[in-house]
Design goal:
The protein is of the alpha+beta class. The protein is 24% helix and 50% strand. It is globular, with a radius of gyration of 18 Å.
Length: 136
């Protein structure tokens, strides 16, 4: 009986593995510095000890740095709590905090290429914001 439960659990894990690896791959592809306008990279980021960091004057820009499961922006910091992959769309469950409060939110993205992705709301997929990689 116990071995049947273990086998069933292993089967479920093996079925879910491609979904988990797709979402993990998307999260890995996000590592780095991103902004809504590729031309603004020099205005928003500065190199410190070989890594890009947000300039102190970057507050007006929609820019952030992803490092593993941490996302740092000028006004808030988020951590990735969970990811889901459905086709070419990856949805992240984020726990975010700023100087005053914290919140949990979902964010859906789709990669255009290795240097560009779009963020959108699945309820309104026609409204999207493009982000461009700054560190490659």
């Amino acid at each position: 009986m116990q071995s049947a439960k273990r086998l069933a659990g292993l089967g479920i894990l093996l079925l879910a593995l491609p979904l988990l690896s797709g979402a993990a791959h998307a999260a890995d592809r996000l590592d780095g510095a991103w902004t809504t306008t590729a031309a603004s990279c020099d205005e928003v980021f500065v190199k410190r000890k070989g890594n890009l960091a947000l300039k102190r004057t970057s507050e007006g820009w929609s820019a952030f740095i992803v490092n593993g499961n941490r996302i740092n922006g000028a006004n808030a910091t988020c951590s990735v709590k969970s990811t889901k992959q459905k086709g070419d769309v990856t949805t992240f469950l984020l726990s975010c905090a700023d100087k005053i409060m914290f919140d949990t939110m979902t964010v859906s993205i789709r990669f255009k290429d290795d240097g560009t992705f779009v963020r959108f709301d699945p309820e309104f997929p026609e409204v999207e914001t493009s982000y461009h990689r700054c560190d490659r």
